[in-house]
Amino acid sequence: MVEVESICRICFLKMDPDTAKKLFDVGATVVFLDVPQNTEVGIDMNVWRTGDKFKGLKMIPPGLHMLHYSAVGKESMAAPRTSFFHFFGEGEILVRKWDPVTETLIEVSDDDKDRIKSNKEELDRFLGAFPYDTWKKWYALTSHVSEEIMKRVQPVSEMLCSASLLEADEEQPKFDAAGSSSEERMLPKMHLKSGTELRFTALPSALCLENASPEFRTAYSLDSSLRLEKMLEGSMAPSQLLGELQVAFVSFLVGHVYDAFEHWKKLVHLFCTCDVALRRYPDMFLQLLTCMHYQIQEVPEDFFTDIISKENFLVHTLHILFTNLEEEDVPTGLRQRGMLFRQHLMQKFKWDFSEEPDEYAPTIVDAE
User: Fold this and answer.
1) Is the per-residue pLDDT at 84 higher than 60?
2) Alpha-helix runs per DSSP H in the chain
3) How far apart are CA 79 and CA 69, in angstroms?
4) Residue of 65, 145, 171, 298 with fewest CB within 10 Å of its CB?
5) 257-261-267 Cα angle (round to 5)
6) Count of CB atoms situated within 10 Å of the CB of 322
7) Is residue 26 over pLDDT 80?
8) pLDDT for 284-316, tens place per residue?
9) In this predicted structure, what is the pLDDT of residue 206?
10) What is d(CA 11, CA 341) in angstroms, rounded to the nearest whole number?
């Protein structure tokens, strides 16, 4: 990692004058006050260790961004990452102040905000320029995330932490008549601190299949289209579901929130195990392929491999999608795009989609 001051110089060397002028006029600014030197601070997919002159970043393209930071100890060990989303408007100035007690960035008073805004020119030399060469990649990863989606999904606290914040139940351990307690009862029960969890849309639970025909049960178990339809009922549009998929991915990739990765996996499995829905929502699945193309570029080849089974979750899941896309009645454009995506993955990662996963292979039962 390098300090923000050097990033500023590098950015200007790569940025053409017209782009620099435009970003200077309409770009947003984030000011971080009193941040200790050597703290890890970042925006989107960029992270640096702060220098003694660091005060923030300027020329930030309007739109969605993710700011993150980690306190660093004496032995250069970084604490768990804290992050938050912010949808910047043109020329906006966002101000946060370091709280040494909690080691977090907190909001400042209106007077402090006004003071910063009035001294923007004086502060300019302490601000690093946003690394514009990485913005297109970030935009591709968040292209469906509107401000509405961001506000709906982000925690009530608006802060994400890579280490789950736990708190004890109000009920205290109970002692028996002799005044003693078992070890299990002595330990307080912990739960996730309210307001810190991402508010993802709950995936539909399995339908009651008690009175369903065998044909329906088989179709329901193999095709997630009914579950997808249920998620799209009401006001949720396909673009919103794709936006939630993207929020989940960057919350894990950048925010290091593991629960977000688990939700991303569930959504990917839901999409990829649809069959009938491929014909009803071809545009959504075309956009899904684009989303996943950019997401997969950001992770190493063996990232999705289960440590125990040594099987790649994504290879098995995409195998189902590609198999369904090969059916003749799937819209031609969607089928062709899917086959191109499969070919790209096979060439880049050497993934093999030719063998059917064992869990989806037909079961042979001996006749009695």
Assistant:
1) yes
2) 4-14, 17-26, 110-118, 120-123, 135-141, 147-153, 183-186, 214-222, 225-232, 238-253, 258-272, 277-280, 282-296, 313-325, 332-349
3) 9
4) 171
5) 140
6) 16
7) yes
8) 999 999 999 999 999 876 676 665 555 688 889
9) 60
10) 33
